[in-house]
């Protein structure tokens, strides 16, 4: 029972089971964060004064270590997956709100004016003009949120086997089987890279007007002025 | 105009595709619940009627004991689910009280020290009575097994040599040396009576500092072996004691009391048939057996569940 | 909200203010780990980012390295390295540096790359050496963005350095891990508060550095 894929029985999952669990615990919160971030970001775009306080609050929330978040939640949601997923949803929200706000704001005034002139109402203009143009920024935010979410699920192992692939880390220590920790780190990293790649693919599909993925840079001397890339890792 | 309309339409189509993709992803994830587990994690807080939830703390022996007791119940046709590696007693006791966990392998004296730090521990029977008196009304302690596994203050070979400590030395003999030593143990050892507090109040030991490690697991073993700490809380059934020539200090004041393996049970969750099954296991489990089984898990790296079922079979309990 | 009571109780307990487990000691350890990790990450990320940004080559390779580094789970890496190497400061530094390099690297690259080309061309036309162009023309303009990359990295380090406590090191994470096992929410909430405050102080430090170091002509907004 020392093999790389021999999962200790106390985890009660097969290797594939752990992967499924990990993806679920990591990605559902990102999805929830996105669904919450879209209206919140729209409010921030509409009411400019709202953005700085929202940004401040989210920065503070992001600085709260995940483990502390988990432990405090145990009292309310018990030692369950939900306890792991709530903080991850909050972190996703924190990454996505600025990404979406910056993305939606980057839509040029002329474009908006053109849409209005075509008779688009505010809702239709938002859904069909602003949101699609903001897609690259939103996906950039989603990539950061997804990758960090996948990485953070592992910490859930500290609150009683709620860390999916991270549970292998605790067992690696408990039974002194380093190969389980190697397995956990590699599998988690591969999952993160795959999800990241899928999101890049999604962007290419959703933004057919952009050059495919590769951001070609003009030779020195004809560099154009670009907007500063947003600080998505914030 | 047509071209604008067309591109607007195509954009709508793409947004639609995105929405569809997201919905599909959500459905996929929701359905992606790790096919091979029977308990729904979101509803897992309250034990389902008729199912016994066997819990364990965050160290290897606890998992092994939970597997032994749990599999013995299964052999009697009782439905069992496991909740492993929960954490420390401070956490598991709360989960026992609210019924999330039905059966937990406990150590009688350690449990008493948690419930009533001041209690004297004179005999195993007296300890069990004292525990039952202090326990939450919904919980009870079953018969203790002869198998014992205590916390102990153990020093590494180098420290033993330096301060001339032998297997007949007691904790009181550590008084001179303690201010020079770093002691290690689980984070909860720092605040427990059967920990730094008792070592100070009972033996007058004040260590240079405390290093939080794990519950007698590999971190503690490694820290003691590499002299990161000179003394540590090691379980007396730990196979590394012999291997690394650690010296366990005697405890004449019985600070670490009795620590017989004893199932803690939520009364509503377990039938008489279940109680009988657990008692039968406890009757056959002695310290020597426990040491052997621990060595199989910790040194030979066998899976605890396999070790548990093999022993139950050989003992005629499954 | 009883969280505030926990905070109050934690900070008013005098036992939390001295000794090896006191707040000053743990804070010092946390700042020590964080500053060291940030310095190491900057020592890797800044030069590479500046050079690639200046030449404009290797953007895809950088993006790939950054993605791969971000994908590595810090907590898992920490546990793995401790199992393999044992205790010490190094096992904590490796995951923290890997965590911090991508934001520094990517923003530095982007910052230098997106500098307005006209002054750069003017400098080149004046016969300025490439290294002087980088340090005297591009760097001052790119500085605000470079600082923002360092800032994100610093905040992430401060927050993540708490996991060091799981492998028995010090720092503010000690209170959170100990509080979990001792079922002492006062410690958990107190520790988390200290981490959040430290993050805010970090923000303030970067704001101050930005005010001092960024030339007034480049300051945005």
From TrEMBL, chain A:
<dbReference type="InterPro" id="IPR051204">
    <property type="entry name" value="ABC_transp_perm/SBD"/>
</dbReference>
<feature type="transmembrane region" description="Helical">
    <location>
        <begin position="26"/>
        <end position="47"/>
    </location>
</feature>
<comment type="similarity">
    <text>Belongs to the binding-protein-dependent transport system permease family.</text>
</comment>
<feature type="transmembrane region" description="Helical">
    <location>
        <begin position="54"/>
        <end position="76"/>
    </location>
</feature>
<dbReference type="GO" id="GO:0055085">
    <property type="term" value="P:transmembrane transport"/>
</dbReference>
<keyword id="KW-0813">Transport</keyword>
<keyword id="KW-0472">Membrane</keyword>
<keyword id="KW-0812">Transmembrane</keyword>
<feature type="transmembrane region" description="Helical">
    <location>
        <begin position="82"/>
        <end position="101"/>
    </location>
</feature>
<dbReference type="InterPro" id="IPR000515">
    <property type="entry name" value="MetI-like"/>
</dbReference>
<dbReference type="GO" id="GO:0031460">
    <property type="term" value="P:glycine betaine transport"/>
</dbReference>
<feature type="domain" description="ABC transmembrane type-1">
    <location>
        <begin position="19"/>
        <end position="203"/>
    </location>
</feature>
<keyword id="KW-1133">Transmembrane helix</keyword>
<feature type="transmembrane region" description="Helical">
    <location>
        <begin position="133"/>
        <end position="160"/>
    </location>
</feature>
<dbReference type="Pfam" id="PF00528">
    <property type="entry name" value="BPD_transp_1"/>
</dbReference>
Automatic annotation (TrEMBL), chain B:
<dbReference type="GO" id="GO:0022857">
    <property type="term" value="F:transmembrane transporter activity"/>
</dbReference>
<dbReference type="GO" id="GO:0043190">
    <property type="term" value="C:ATP-binding cassette (ABC) transporter complex"/>
</dbReference>
<feature type="domain" description="ABC-type glycine betaine transport system substrate-binding">
    <location>
        <begin position="51"/>
        <end position="313"/>
    </location>
</feature>
<dbReference type="Pfam" id="PF04069">
    <property type="entry name" value="OpuAC"/>
</dbReference>
<keyword id="KW-0732">Signal</keyword>
<protein>
    <submittedName>
        <fullName>Osmoprotectant transport system substrate-binding protein</fullName>
    </submittedName>
</protein>
<feature type="signal peptide">
    <location>
        <begin position="1"/>
        <end position="30"/>
    </location>
</feature>
<dbReference type="InterPro" id="IPR007210">
    <property type="entry name" value="ABC_Gly_betaine_transp_sub-bd"/>
</dbReference>
Automatic annotation (TrEMBL), chain C:
<feature type="transmembrane region" description="Helical">
    <location>
        <begin position="157"/>
        <end position="177"/>
    </location>
</feature>
<keyword id="KW-0472">Membrane</keyword>
<feature type="transmembrane region" description="Helical">
    <location>
        <begin position="31"/>
        <end position="50"/>
    </location>
</feature>
<keyword id="KW-0812">Transmembrane</keyword>
<keyword id="KW-1133">Transmembrane helix</keyword>
<dbReference type="GO" id="GO:0055085">
    <property type="term" value="P:transmembrane transport"/>
</dbReference>
<feature type="transmembrane region" description="Helical">
    <location>
        <begin position="189"/>
        <end position="209"/>
    </location>
</feature>
<dbReference type="InterPro" id="IPR051204">
    <property type="entry name" value="ABC_transp_perm/SBD"/>
</dbReference>
<dbReference type="Pfam" id="PF00528">
    <property type="entry name" value="BPD_transp_1"/>
</dbReference>
<comment type="similarity">
    <text>Belongs to the binding-protein-dependent transport system permease family.</text>
</comment>
<dbReference type="InterPro" id="IPR035906">
    <property type="entry name" value="MetI-like_sf"/>
</dbReference>
<feature type="domain" description="ABC transmembrane type-1">
    <location>
        <begin position="27"/>
        <end position="206"/>
    </location>
</feature>
<dbReference type="GO" id="GO:0005886">
    <property type="term" value="C:plasma membrane"/>
</dbReference>
<keyword id="KW-0813">Transport</keyword>
<protein>
    <submittedName>
        <fullName>Osmoprotectant transport system permease protein</fullName>
    </submittedName>
</protein>
């Amino acid at each position: 029972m020392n093999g790389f894929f021999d999962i200790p029985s106390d985890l009660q999952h097969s290797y594939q089971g752990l992967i499924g669990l990990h993806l679920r615990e990591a990605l559902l919160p990102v999805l929830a964060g996105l669904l919450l971030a879209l209206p919140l970001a729209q409010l921030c775009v509409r009411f400019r004064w709202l953005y700085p306080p929202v940004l401040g609050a989210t920065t503070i929330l992001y600085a709260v270590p995940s483990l502390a978040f988990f432990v405090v939640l145990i009292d309310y949601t018990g030692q369950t997956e939900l306890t792991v997923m709530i903080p991850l949803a909050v972190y996703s929200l924190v990454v996505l709100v600025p990404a979406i706000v910056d993305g939606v704001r980057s839509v040029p005034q002329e474009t908006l004016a053109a849409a209005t002139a075509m008779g688009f109402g505010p809702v239709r203009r938002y859904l069909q003009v602003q949101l699609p143009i903001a897609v690259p920024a939103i996906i950039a935010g989603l990539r950061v949120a997804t990758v960090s979410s996948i990485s953070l699920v592992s910490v859930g192992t500290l609150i009683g086997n709620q860390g999916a692939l991270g549970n292998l880390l605790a067992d690696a220590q408990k039974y002194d089987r380093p190969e389980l920790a190697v397995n956990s780190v590699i599998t988690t990293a591969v999952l993160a890279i795959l999800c990241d790649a899928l999101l890049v693919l999604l962007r290419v599909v959703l933004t057919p007007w952009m050059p495919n993925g590769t951001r070609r840079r003009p030779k020195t001397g004809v560099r154009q002025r670009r907007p500063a890339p947003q600080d998505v890792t914030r | 105009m047509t071209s604008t309309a067309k591109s607007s339409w195509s954009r709508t189509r793409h947004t639609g595709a995105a929405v569809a993709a997201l919905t599909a992803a959500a459905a996929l994830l929701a359905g992606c619940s790790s096919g091979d587990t029977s308990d729904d994690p979101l509803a897992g807080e309250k034990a389902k009627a008729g199912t016994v939830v066997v819990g364990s703390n965050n160290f290897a022996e606890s998992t092994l004991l939970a597997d032994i007791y749990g599999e013995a119940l299964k052999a009697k046709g009782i439905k069992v689910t496991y909740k492993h590696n929960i954490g420390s007693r401070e956490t598991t006791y709360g989960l026992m009280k609210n019924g999330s966990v039905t059966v937990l392998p406990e150590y009688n004296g350690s449990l008493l020290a948690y419930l009533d730090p001041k209690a004297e521990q004179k005999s195993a029977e007296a300890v069990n009575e004292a525990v039952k008196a202090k326990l939450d009304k919904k919980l009870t302690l079953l018969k203790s097994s002869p198998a014992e596994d205590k916390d102990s203050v153990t020093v590494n070979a180098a420290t033993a040599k330096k301060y001339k400590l032998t297997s007949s030395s007691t904790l009181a003999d550590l008084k001179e040396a303690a201010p020079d030593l770093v002691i290690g143990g689980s984070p909860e050892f720092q605040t427990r009576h059967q920990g730094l507090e008792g070592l100070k109040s009972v033996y007058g030991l004040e260590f240079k500092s405390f290093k939080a490690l794990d519950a007698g697991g590999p971190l503690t073993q490694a820290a003691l072996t590499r002299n990161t700490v000179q003394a540590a809380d090691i379980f007396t059934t730990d196979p590394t004691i012999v291997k690394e020539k650690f010296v366990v200090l005697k405890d004449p004041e019985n600070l670490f009391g009795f620590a017989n393996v004893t199932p803690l049970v939520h009364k509503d969750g377990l039938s008489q048939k279940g109680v009988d099954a657990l008692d039968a296991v406890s009757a056959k489990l002695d310290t020597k057996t426990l040491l052997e089984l621990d060595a199989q898990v910790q040194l030979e790296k066998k899976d605890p569940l396999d070790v548990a079922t093999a022993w139950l079979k050989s003992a005629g309990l499954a | 909200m009883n969280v505030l009571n926990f905070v109050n109780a934690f900070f008013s307990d005098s036992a939390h203010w001295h000794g090896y487990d006191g707040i000053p000691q743990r804070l010092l350890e946390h700042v020590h780990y964080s500053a060291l990790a940030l310095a190491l990450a900057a020592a890797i990320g800044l030069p590479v980012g500046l050079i690639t940004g200046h030449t404009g080559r290797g953007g895809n390779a950088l993006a790939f390295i950054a993605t791969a580094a971000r994908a590595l789970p810090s907590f898992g890496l920490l546990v793995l390295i401790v199992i393999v190497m044992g205790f010490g400061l190094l096992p904590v530094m490796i995951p923290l540096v890997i965590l911090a390099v991508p934001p520094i690297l990517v923003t530095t690259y982007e910052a230098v790359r997106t500098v307005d080309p006209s002054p750069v061309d003017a400098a080149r036309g004046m016969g300025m050496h490439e290294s002087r162009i980088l340090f005297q023309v591009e760097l001052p303009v790119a500085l605000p963005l470079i600082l923002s990359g360092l800032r994100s990295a610093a905040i992430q380090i401060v927050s993540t350095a708490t996991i060091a406590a799981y492998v028995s090191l010090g720092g503010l994470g000690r209170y959170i891990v100990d509080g979990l096992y001792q079922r002492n929410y006062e410690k958990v909430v107190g520790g988390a508060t200290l981490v959040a405050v430290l993050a805010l102080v970090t923000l303030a430090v970067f704001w101050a550095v930005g005010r001092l170091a960024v030339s007034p002509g480049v300051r945005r907004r």
